Protein 1
Amino acid sequence: MAAHLPVRPPSLKQRALAVTRRLGLTGRGGVILGPYAWLVLFFLVPFLIVLKISVAEPAVGIPPFTKLIEWVDGGLDLKIRFSGFQALFEDDLYILAYLNSLKIAFVSTLCCLLIGYPMAYAIATAPEKRRGPLLMLIILPFWTSFLIRVYAWMSILKDEGLLNNLLLSLGIIHEPLKILYTDWAVYIGITYSYLPFMILPLYATLEKLDHTLLEAAADLGARPWKAFLTITLPLSLPGIIAGSLLVFIPAVGEFVIPSLLGGSDTLMIGRELWNLFFNSRDWPSASAVAIALLAFLVGPIMIFQHFQGRDQDKGAA
Amino acid sequence: MSDAPDLRPRPAPKNPIGKSQAAPLEPWRDPNAKPYVQIEKVVKRFGDFTAVDNVSLSIYRGEFFSLLGGSGSGKTTLLRMLAGFETPTEGRIFIDGVDMAGIPPYDRPVNMMFQSYALFPHMTVENNVAFGLRQDGVPKDEIRARVAEMLEMVKLTPFAKRKPHQLSGGQRQRVALARSLVKKPKLLLLDEPLGALDKRLREQTQFELVNIQEKLGVTFVVVTHDQEEAMTMSSRIAVMDHGHIAQVGTPTEIYEYPNSRFTAEFIGSVNMFEGHVVESEADHSLIRSAEAGCDLYVTHAAHLPEGSRCWVAIRPEKVSITKDKPAELVEGRNVTRGVVREIAYLGDVSIYQIDLPSGKRVRATAPNVTRRTELPITWDDEVWLCWRPFAGVVLTD
C-alpha cells in the first residue's frame, strides 16, 4: 500500500475561493454584482419608498404622511390609502398634464429626429479625419451647465432678446414675437437640450452602414433619394428607436425646461409633481403621480423593446 | 466580315469548358467587329497614386473577359469605372457606343456583382432579387415571374423567404448573381465572384457561371486574382500589373506565348533562363545561356540583334526529365544536366526541382503514366533535361 502522503492544509486563497463558491459567487457573478447592488440601492429602494408614500395619507408633521404600519391598541395596523391615486382621476388637471407632457415629448422627439438625422448622417459620411472633431462639437455643450444653457435660451427668446432683435432689424417682423413663456419655447428648449442624445445613437448605426449596399442599390437603378429610403433608412431604424427613446423618456418628465421657458399655462407632469411636493406638501399625491408616470412609460417601452429585440435577432448576421 | 477562312494555328478551343455559342468565335480577330465596351486611354489617379495607367481595351459582345492581376494592379478600379462608381481622371469609356462620361451608375446599362455580395440584410432573398426591377417600375406580376425564374435558375427557390444571414456563403453568392442578372443587363461586371467560396464550391460554380453566361448571352467582365479561375472561364484575359495592361489574349495565348517576363511568371510557373542572342534568323533564334548550361534553340524569331540580352521562358511540363541521355538531339542545344533536389508527388503528376551546375533551379513536371516506374527518378539522381525547339519563348523584359 502506498504510504500516507502528508496532506497540505488549504491555503488562504483556496479557502477564500471555497467560501465564495459556496455562496454561488463566481468571477462573472462578482462583476455583475456591482451594478446590481447600485440599482437596488439607488433605484429599487427609493422606488419602494415612493411607492410606500403613494399609499399613505397626507398628514401634518414631519414626514408629512401617515405611517404604513402602526402599533395601535396592541395590534399592528396596516394602513393603505388610495386617496393619492384617486386624485389623479378626479382632477382632470393631472390627465391633461400627462397628455400634454406626452404631446410635448413627442413633438420634441420628432424635432430632434428631423434635425438630428441629417446631422448624424453628415458626420457619418464625413471623411474619417473630420468625424472626431464634429462629434466633439456635438458633445461640447455638455461641458457647460445645463441650467446656464437654458437661461441663455431665455435671453435669446425673450421679447427684446437676440432672436426678436435680429428679426426686427431684418424687417421680417414688425413687432416682437411672443416665444418665451409659451409652449414654443419649451419645444425649442427640449429639442436643443436633448439633440445630442438623438445624434449619438444615430451616428453609431449610420457609421456602421456598409457603403457598398448603397453602391449596389445605385447599380440596380435606385436614384440616391430612393436608395436612402429603401436602404439607409430601414437599416438605421435601431438608431432611430434608441435615439427616440433616449429623448422621449426624459422629456416626458422634464421639469426644469418647462418651468423656466414655459408659460404659466404650460401643463407638464413634472411641474405638477413639483407643485404637489413643495407647494401643497401633499407627498402621497405627488408619489402617486410619479408612480403613474412610471407605469405609463414603462409599459409601452417594454413592449417596444421586446419587438425591437426580436427584430434585431432576425436582422443580425 | 472576312470570308476567307482563318488558317492561323489555333491550338485549343477558345474555352476549355467547351463552350459552343452562336456568336462569332473570336470577334477580336475580326477587324470590322464593333466592340461592345471600349476603354480608351483611361487613367485613374487617387491623389499621387495612379491606380489605372493609360489602359485601352476592347471587349466584344458575348465575351467572358477577365481582368487578372495581383492586389493593387488596378483591376477593381477599372471595373468600378465601368460601373460608374469611379470617374476616369483621363480617357473615355464607351458602352454600346455611348460615352459613359457623366452617366451615374443608376442610369448605366450595366449591373455588378460585388465581391462582398452587398446583399441587403433587411430584405428577403426574393426582395433582394426584385429590388432592381422595382426601381424600373416593372409591373408586379412581371416582377414575380422574373424573380421566380431567376431563383429557379440559381436553384434558390426554396430559400426565397429567407434573409441573407440565414444562407450559406455559396447561397449568398447565387443570390448576388441572381440579383445582378434579373434586369437582363447586356454587360455584367463581377468583382472576384468566387473569391469567398471554398475550393470545391469554386470549381463547381465556375462551370455554373459559364453555363449561365452562355445561356443568357450576357457579356461578362470578371475581376479575379486567381489565374486558374481566369484560365478556366475566360474567352480572353487581360493581365494587369501596376495599373498597366501587361498582355491581352486568350488563355492559350497568355500561357503559351507570354509577351513579358511578368506575364510568364504570373500565369503558371515557368523556368526563366537569362542569356544573349547568338543567332537571330526569321525561322529560329539561338540563345547562349550560362545559366542553362547550354544553347537554347527556339523556333521563332526573336527580332533581336545578335548579342543582346534576353530571357527564354520554358514551362515545366515542356521540360522532359530522363536518367539516360536522350537520343535525337544536337549536342549542347536544349539539353542540360542537373541533380534532382526535390520531388513533389501530386498523384497525377510529379514535380521535380533540379539544380543545374550554374546553381539555377529548374522545375520540371512529368505525368505519372505508369503505376510504378521501371527506373524511378529519385533524390540526388543525376538527370538529363531536354525540351523541344518550340518549347521556349524569347522575352526581352
Note: Chain B has eight helices and 20 strands.
Protein 2
Amino acid sequence: MKRPCDPDAMAEASRDARVVPSGAACRINALSTDVLLRAISFLEARQLVQTCVLSRRWRNLWRSVPRINASHDEFDGKAGTEIAYDVLFKNFINRFLMLRNPVALHEFRLQYNIPDGSNDPVADSRDANLWIRHALQSNVRLIEVFGGSIDLHLDPAVFASKFCFVTSMLLTLVFLEPPFFKNLRTGCTVLERLVLRSCIIYHPEISSHTLKVLTIDANCYCTFEGRATISIPSLIDLHFFPDGADGARIPLLKNMESLVTASFAFGTNDDLVDDMCQFLWSLHGITDLEFNYRGPQSYPNLEDNLEDRSFTCEHLEDRSFTCEHLVMVKIFCLDTYGEYDPLVNSLVVFLSDNGINPGQISIN
Amino acid sequence: MEVDKGKGEAEETRKVAEADRDTVTLKSSDGKLFEVSKEAAARLSTVLAGMIAGGSIDDNGTDLKQIGSEALENVVDYCNKHANSIPSAALISSSISFNTAPFKEPEEWERKFVDRLSHDALFDLVEAANFLGMERLLDVTCHKISEMMKGKSPDQIREVFNIKNDYTKEELEEIRQELAWAFYDD
C-alpha cells in the first residue's frame, strides 16, 4: 500500500516539530498503523468506516480496529421512521462485522434499541445477541451493552462458550434470565468485573471463581422472590443495591473471604436483623462496609419485630463476629427516626458487642 | 533477604541505595534532563517500569533518543499531574489490575492537558507515549485525535490533518459502491 507521507521524512520532521509550521506535514499518516487504529477506534462505527475515503492509507483501516462503538443513535434521523433507521442500523452493523478482518477485538460497545411498540422483544433482541456472540468469538476483553427504552433480552447461551476472554462487562437496561449467571461462571472464566445498571434480574444465584468487582445498582430490579445468594471467593468489591419484589433482602453471602469493600441497600422486612447478622458473620477481611437502609418512614411493627430480632441476635451471640479489619461503619438512614430508630440502635449494639468501637460507627 | 546473605551483601546495599532514590532522570534526544517520580514512571510507563526493574536506569540521565525535549517535558508533566490527581476509587483500583477496566473518558485535567497542545506537539506526545508504553497517555492523546475527526466530513478531516487525497475519482466511486451500506445518505 502506498503512503502519501513518507514515514522517514515524518520522523525527521517530528524531531523539529516547532520549526515546521503546523499543517505543513501530514502527521497523522506518519503514525504507525497500530496507533492510528487506536485513535480511529474511538469513532462511532459509521464514521469509522467512512474514513476509508480519506486516502489510500485509510482504505482498509476500519476493518482492523481493536474497539467497536456500535451506536444506534448514530443512525437517528438518517431515515424517515424509527423502524426504517433501525433497519439501516442493523444492516450496517451486520455488514461491518461480516467484512471486518478476523483480528482480536479489545472492546465492544453496543448501544441498541428495540422500537417502541415491539410485540416480540426477544425476537427484536436477536441481532444484538448475534453481535455480542461475534465479539466474544473475536476474543473481546471488554463489553458494554446499553439496551434502550425496551429492555434488551440477553440470551444466556451467548455466554456459555468455553472460549470467552472477556474480563469486564457493563450491562445497562438489559433483561437477564437464567441461566445467565451460571453461564458466566462456566463460559466467561476470566471475567473480573461485572456492573449491572437498570437491569431486570431473575433469581441472582451468583457464583464465580474470578469476579473481583460486582455492582448491581439501585435501578436494577429483581423479579425473584426470596433472597439472592452470592458465592464469590475472589470478590474484592461488592455493591448490591437492587430493588425487589420482596423488600430487597440482604443477600446471603458464602465464601467471600477476599471481600474488602462492600455497600448494600436493604428494605424493611421480617428477616432484616437475622439477615444482617448472617451477613456480618460471613465477612472476614472487610475494611469498608456501607449499609443503606431503604425502609419506609414509619414502620408499623417496628417495636414488635425488634423484640423478636433482639432475641434472635442474643440467641446467636455465642457465634463470633470476625470483622477485625473493619475500620469504619457508616449507617445511612432515610427515615425520620435517624439514630433514634430502635432498629438502628439494635444494630449499633450488635456491632459494639462484637468489638466495633462506637467511634467507628457513623450514622447519617 | 533470607537467601545468599553473605556474598550478595554489597550488591544488596547498592540496590537498596538505588531503590531509595524516589526519582529517575530522563534525557531527551537533544540532551535535556528531566526528573520524574519513580513511582509514577513505573506505574504509567511499561517501558520505564521494565528499565527500573531491570536496573538499566542511569543516574546521570537515561537516554531516550527517540523523544525530543518538548515531548519529554509533556510526558514528565503528565506523570506529575497524574501522581497529584488522586483517583476517586483509589482503594479499589490498587487491588485490581488496570487492564480489566474499560476505557475511561479523559478526566477534566487530562482534557485540558491535551487541549493546550499544538498540532505537532500532540503528535509528538502520541509517539512518545507509544514509545514509552504509556497506555493511558496514549489513549488520552489518541482520543483527542478522534475528537478532532468526530462529526466532520472527509474533506474537513483531510484539511485538519493535511491528508492528501491520492485516490482517483473512479476509485472513490468504486469504494462508495462497494460500501454503499455505509454511505447510503451521502
Note: Chain A has a mean pLDDT of 79.
Protein 3
Amino acid sequence: MSPERTPVEYTSVRELRGPLIVVEGVGGVGWDEFATITLASGERRHGVVLEVRDDLAVVEVLEGTGGMDPAGLRMAFDGRPLTVPVGEGWLGRTCDGRGAPRDGGPPVFGRTSAPVEGMAVNPVRRQPPGEPVLTGIAAVDVLTTLVRGQKLPIFSAAGLPHLELAVQIAAQATTTGERFSVVFAGMGLTHADAFFVQEALAERAAAGELCLLLNTADDPVIERILTPRLALTVAEHLAFDGGRHVLVIMTDMTSYAEALREVSAARGEVPARRAYPGYLYSDLASLYERCGRIVGRPGSVTVLPVLTMPAGDITHPVPDLTGYITEGQIVLARQIHAEGVYPPVDALSSLSRLMRKGAGLGRTRGDHLDVAAQLTAALARARQAGELAELAGESALSPADRRYLAMYPRYLHDFLHQERDRTLALDESLERAWRVLLTLPPGELGMLPTALLDARNSDGSPGAVA
Amino acid sequence: MADLTAAEPPARPVATARILRVAGPLVELENVGGIAMNDLVLLGAERVPAEVVAITTSRVTVQAYEYTGGLAPGRHGFPLGAPVCARLSPGLLGGVFDGLLRPLTDFGDRLAPGTGTDEPPARRWAFDAAVVKGQEVDEGTVIGEAGNPGGPRTRILVPPGCTGEVTYVADSAEHPEDTVLAVVGGTEIRSVTDWPVRRPRPVRERVPARAPLTTGQRVIDLLFPVARGSTVAVPGGFGTGKTLLLQQIAKWCDADVIVYIGCGERGNEMADVITEFAELTDPRTGGRLADRTVIIANTSNMPMMARETSIHTGATVAEYFRDMGHDVVVIADSTSRWAEALREFASRTGELPAEEGYPAGLASALAAFYERAGAVTTLGAGPGSVTVLGAVSPPGGDLAEPVTAHTERCVRGRWTLDRDLAYARHYPAVSWSHSFSRDTDVLGTGRDGQETAGRRAAVAELLAAADRLADLVELVGVGALPAPERVSVLAGRLIREGLLQQSALSPNDAHCTPAKTAALADAVLAVIERCRSLVASGTPPDVVEQADFTALLRAREEAGPGDAATVRAARDTVLAVLGELR
C-alpha cells in the first residue's frame, strides 16, 4: 500500500501455522509494521507484524495462509503500521472489508493517509456530546435519542430484524441542516444480506453520503478484524478534517469478536471467559471509543454497533463488555417481534445515557424529556399490570392498572410500529407518544408539566377523552 | 532513606541497552547492568516510557506504557536508573493527568506516543514560607504553602528521612517550579517532588479508622457507612449506575481532597467529569469543586499498561495529600479494567494463568492496593486518612468472578449495585440485602453514632421484612395478607421511595446532610409506627394504604440538602392525615 518505497524482500520462511508466518534473517523490522507477501504465483497478500525477536518476525496474514508454499514466498516490510488513504473519495463507494472496490470502480485514493489503528483522543480535548442525530425511527428518537459523538449499540438476537433496522437508520439518519455522512461496515454478512444492504442503501450511496464496507461470511476471518478499523479511520477523517457529522454503523460485532477469538487461538494466547481473549474489552473499546467530538473542531463521529446476543444471552461476553463501554443500548425483543411490530424495541431494557444532554428544549423539543420519562414509567406500570393480570386474572386489577393494560397495545401499534421505509419526523413521533399517553387518566400523568397537559386537554386532542 | 528525598528529576539515562524483542507492550532488552526492578526505561527515538518487570543475567523485560509500533530489535533503550515516579507538585489540584501523572493539557487533540516525554513548560508557584532560618525541623514539618494566587494551596513538607536545621528559606514570592524553597540539614526542598508510585509513603503510625466519612448519599450514610481511612468495593453490572454513584460521592462527600482515577472507562464520561467539576461549587469551601480534585484519566482506548500504573499513581497522590494532614478519598473506576491489564501482561510474559486467565498474584496485587488506605498519624504528627472506593465491573454481573471475589475479602465495605433496582429506576441502586459495612461498629459509638445505629437497625429490619413478603405478594396479591404484614409491605415502599431513593439530578436532593438523613429516617419511621398502631386498633389496612403519603414521599425533593425542618413539617402533615382516618 506504499508504492513509494522498494524495500528489502525476505525469503527465508521458517514456519507457517494458522494465519501466521515466521520469517528469519530480518533486520530493523518494527512491531506492528505492515507487510506485503508475494506468492510464487505472483498473488499478493498482506500482513501485520505481531512480534519481533532478534532476527525473527512473526507476521499475521490478513488473507490467511491457505495455499502458501514457504519456498516461493517473498516478504517486504513497509516501515510503518498499516495506513489507508482517507478523504471524500470513499463517499459513494462500495468496497470489501479491506477497502478494495466491490463496485467495479478504481481503487480509492486520497490526498492523505492515516494509520488504521487511530490514536486515542485526549480526554481533556473531548467535547461532551450535546446534539441529537435523528434517525426517523420513533422508538429511537423519542425514547433512546442518539446523540452526536455517542456510541449506542443495538442488542439483538438471531432472527430479529436488526439488519433491517440498521439499514433503515443508515438510510434515514440526519443532523438537520448540517453535513452528514454514513459509513456502513458489515462484518461476516451472508451474501444475501450483503445484497440487501447494497440495494437498500443504493440511493444514499448515489447521493455521495455513504460509504459501504462489506466483509462477507466467506471472506478471510482476519480481514474482519480490519473492517471496523478501516471504517472508523475513514469516518474520523470525514468528521474531524472534513467537518461532517458521521454515523458509523458496524454489524455484526459478534462476528467480529468471533474472528478475534479465532485469531487469538491461532496465536496461542491464554483464553479468558468463553475462550475469548482477555483483551476483548480493550479491543472493543479501541473501536467504540473512536466516537466523539473534539473541542474546537467541527464534526462528530457517532458509533452504532449492532450485535446478536448468542442464544439471546445478555451476559454473554460480547454484549456484556459492549454494554460496559457504550453509552446505553437499544435492545430488540422477541416477544414484540412476535406481535408483528417493527422495530421490536424493548423500551424498558433500552437506554441512551446521553439523551438527557442531547434532547429537550433547544435540541429537540421542550416537552421531549418529560414525554419520554412519562412513557417509560407508563410502560413499566403496564408491564407490572400485565404480569399481575396473567397470575391473578384481569379482575384482580385496580381500575388504574386496567387503563395501563389497555394502553399497551396502543403503544405497540400506534407508537412503536412503523413501516420499514417510512421516516418519521421528530414532531410526528412525539405526537404519537402524546396520543398514547393521553389514553391514560390525567391523574396518572404526573411527570408531564400541568401547563402542557392542560393545553393538550383543552384543544380536544382525540385521545383526551378516551 | 536519603535516596527518597531526591527531588531532582531522573532525566539522564545511566546506560544504553539494545532491544532484543518487541511483542506489543512487552519489550526485552539486553542486560547491561545497573538496572533494578521497577526502574524506568525510555525506548527508542520516541522515548516511550517503560517499567522493568523481570531481570535475568542476559535480558531485562519491560512493560511499555505507550504504543510500541515501529520499535525494532537492534534499536536502543535508555535505563534511567530510578524507579517509575509520580511528579508531585502544587499543580495537582484541579488538574487532569494520565496514568504516569503527566498533565494531559500538555498533549494535543490526540495522544501520539512519545509526545508526553518532552520537557513540560515551566510552571511558577506563589510561595508563602512558614519556617524561619535557624529553626530546627523534623520530617513532615510544613515549611510553607505554594500554589496559584487565588487557586488551591498545597503544603510543602520536609521530606521523609530529613531532619535538622533550616539553613535557607526562599522569599515568600513567586518562584519557578524547580527553585529550591528551603534547605534542611543539607537537603534541598522544592515545590515538586518525585515519589516511586509503587512504594507507600511513610507515616508515623496507622491508627484505627473511627470518624465517619459523610458521602451525602442516604442509603450509604444510613445503612452502609464508611469510615475515613476505610475501603469499599462497589460491584455492579453495566447500567446499574456505578459511575454516577461514584461521581456523586466525588462531588459531595466531606473529604478534603478527591483523587478520581478513571481507569479504562469511557472518554465521554471523563470529559463530562472534567467539565462538570469545573462548573460546580464546593458546598463546604465555596470554591470550585475541581480545586479539591485530582483527575487521573486513562480511558479504555489509551495504552493498557498505563492503566496498571494509574491505580498506584492515584494512591501515591492520595498519600501525598494525606501527609499534609488531609482526609483524602481515592475513587478507582474501575479496578476490573486494572486487573485486565495485569492479566494481559501476565499472558504476554507467559505466566501460568490461575482463574479465568488472571495471574495467581491478582489477590495479593488487589490487597496491596487497598492496603494503601488507612487512617494515620502523619510524620508531621497530625491526623490524615486515605479512603479507597473501588468500582468493580463483574462480567455478566457474576459476583463470583475472580476480581469481585478477591476484592471483597480485603475491603471493609461493599456496596453492591442491583440490576433489578436500576431497571426499576430506583437510584442509587445499592442493594440492601447484598451490601455490607464492617465500619458500623466503630462508627456506632458516641451519642450521634448510637442514634444513627438505632435508625439503621430499625430501617434494615423493616426492609428485610418487606423483602420477605415481596415474593408472597407477587403470587397472591397484597389483599390476601394479614393486616400487620400489609403494613410491613407499605413500610418497605415508604422507605424505598421516601428515604433511600435519591436523584442525582435534583438540585435539592443530589446530596444530603446527616441532619436531613436523620430527619427523613425519623419521619418515615414515625409514619410507619402510626400506621402500625392504627391497624392494631382496628383501622382496615386498605384505608391506611390509600392514605395520602405524598407530603412524606416528596419531602426529600422539597427540602434542601440540610433542611430538616421541612422534613419534620411533612411528617406532621402525614401524621395529621393519618390521625383523621378511622
Note: The first helix of chain A runs from residue 138 to 143.
Protein 4
Amino acid sequence: MWKWLHPYANPEVSYHFSVKLTPWLTAIAAILIPVGIVWALAFVPADYQQGDSFRIFYLHVPAAMLSMGIYVGIAIAAFSSLVWQLKLADASAAALAPIGAIFTVIALFTGAAWGKPMWGTWWIWDARLTSELILLFLYLGVIALHNAFDDKNLAGKAAGILSIVGVINIPIIHYSVEWWNTLHQGATVSKLDKPSMSVEMLWPFLICFLGFSFFVAALGCKRFCTEVLARNSMRPWVRALATAQEKK
Amino acid sequence: MPNQTTALITGSNLTCIRGDRILFEQLNFQINAGDIVQVEGPNGSGKTSLLRILCGLTAPFEGEVLFKQNLIGDNRELFHQNLLYIGHLPGVKGEMAAQENLEFNLSLHGLDAAQAEQTLSEVNLFGFEDSLASHLSAGQHRRISLARLFSSKSPVWILDEPFTAIDKNGVKRLEKLFSEHAQRGGCVILTTHQDLALPSDLVKKISLDYCIF
Amino acid sequence: MMFEANLSYRAVFVLVVKRDLTIALRHRDDIFNPLLFFIIVVTLFPLGVGPESTTLTRIAPGIIWVAALLSTLLSLDRLFKSDHMDGSLEQMLLSPQPVFILVLAKVFAHWLITGLPLILVAPLLAVLLHMNELSYGALILTLLIGTPVLSLLGAVGVALTVGIKKGGVLLSLLVLPLFIPVLIFATSAIDTAAMNLPYSGQLAIIASLLFGSLTLAPFAIGAALKVSTN
C-alpha cells in the first residue's frame, strides 16, 4: 500500500523532489497571503465591539493554529523516525522546529498586542496565552536539544523522543492551565469566546490560514533541503552537487 | 561459502559514519564459534565503533548485525544473555568494594554472585575484596571488570582494549583464557595494539583502514 | 553453546535499588545538597517578599512546590551521570534484564534518596511560612504522590542530556515545562484544603499523572538512554 513512498526514503530523491516543490509552494503562498491580508484589513467590516483592533485576529489565529499544528507534525515525524527508522523524518522535524517556534512567538506577540486595547495591558495570564507561552518553552527545548549534540542523527533521535513526550503532555498542560485559569480568574471575558464567524469574516480567514500554511510548507521544504544536504555531506551525490555549484 | 550453522555473529553491509567522515563502509564478515578475531587499524579508524555496533550499543548508519541468524535488536534479551562486552570504561563504582562491584555485575547478568570472591583471586585481587574501588588503581579497576570473564558462560566476548593497564602476567593469563574460551565453542572479538601471543592460525583479523575522502 | 539466565523482575528491581542506595549512603552529599538547596530557596522568599504572615500564608504552597521542583531538578542531574561516566550504564543496558525494570529501579532509588527527605522537611518549612494548619495533610499527600511524577518526567530529560557535557541548564529547559500540571494541581489541592473543602479531585488527577508517567516514562527513558550511550 505504501510502496509508492519507498523511493522518497532515499535522501537524494526526496532532496530533488523538495527542490522542485519549493517554488510552487512559495508561489501559492505569495498569492494567497496578500489576497487574504488585504481582504481582511481593508474590506471586512469592523467589529461592532472591538472596532478595527480585531483585525489582528487574521494574523493571530492562523499563527496560533500553525504553531500547535507544526508541533504535532514534528511529533508525528519523530514517531515515524523512531518506529520505521526513517532518517529523513528526523530531517523534516529538525527543519520544522524553528519555524514552529517563530510562529509561536508571532502568536504570542500578536496576542499581547491584541490584549492591549482589549484589557488595557500587554500581558494577562489568559489560558490560551499561557499555553502558548509554555508551547514556546517546549519548542525551545527541542531546538536546544538539537543543537546540543554534535552528531545530527543522534540529535534527531533525542529531540524526537522529547517532542513525543511533549506532544503527550501538551493536552495535559493545556487543560491544566485552562482549569487553573478559570479557578483563579473566574469571570474574565475570554477574548476568543467562540465568536460566531460570519461568512464575510470566514473567507478571508480561510485564505489567510491557507496562505500561511503554504508559507510554512515552503519554508519547511527549503529548510528540509539544507538539512538533508548537511546530513549527507559525505555522500558522493552531495559532493557532485557542490562541485556543480562551484563551476557555475 | 562460509558454513551458516556455526556463525555466531554476522555483520552485513555495515557502514559507520561519525560526523561527516565515513569510518567504514559495506563491511561484511562472519564470526564462527571458536574464532578469536582481532580488529586492527590505526587510531580513529573505527575499531571501538565497530565493537559497539556489534554489541548493539551504537546503531550502524546502514547494515545489520546478526546473532545466530537473528537480528540482535529482535531478541535483545537472548542476545545479551550470550554477550559479554567490556569497553574502555571499566564500569566500576568507586563507592563500592571490589567484591560488591563484581557481585553486582555477576547477578545483573544472571550469574551466581557467590563466585565473586573466588573469581577476584583469579585476577590477583586476593586481599582487596573489601577495599573501596575508589582506593584502587586503574589497572585494578580493569581487573575487576575483566574478572567477569572467568565466570562467564556467554559464548560471545567483545572486548575493547582488554590489555590496557594490565601487567605482563595478566596478559598471559587472559590470552590463555581466550584460547580456552574459543576451544569451548565461544568467540572472542577484541581490539588491542599489542600482538597476541597466540598461534597465528587461531587468530583472524579484521582490518579497518583510515580512509579520507 | 547457548546460555540462558533468568532472574525474576522483582530480583532485578531489588538488586538495582540496593546498589543505588548503597552508593548514595556512602556518598551522602547527593542526599543532603538538594535538601539544603530546598530549605535555602524556601527561606529566601520571606526575605524577598517581606515577613507579613498573611502574604506568606497566601503564597506558601506555591513557594514550597516551586522549591521542590527546583531541588528535584538539581538532584536529577546525578541520576545517570556517574553511571554514564564510569561505563556502568552501558553494562546495565547490555545486561539481559529488561531496560524498563532497570530504569524504574534507578528512578525509584533516586526518589527514595531525594524525594522522601523533601516530604519529611516540608512540614517544618510550612511552619516557617505560616501555612494554614488545615493544609498540612494536603501538602504531604501532594508531595508524596507528586514528587515521583517529577522524578519520572525529569528522568526522561536527564536520560536525554546525560551524554552532553553541559547538560545541566539544558535539562531545566527541557523538564520544567513538563512539571507544570503537577505544580498547578498540587498547589490548588493545598489551597482548597486551606478553605476546608475536599481536595480529593486534585489528588486523583495527580495520581493519574503518576500512573500515566509510571507506565510511559520508563519507555522514553530507556529510548533516551540508548541515544545517549550511542
Note: Chain A touches chain B at residues 150-151, 153, 233-234, 239 (CB under 8 Å).
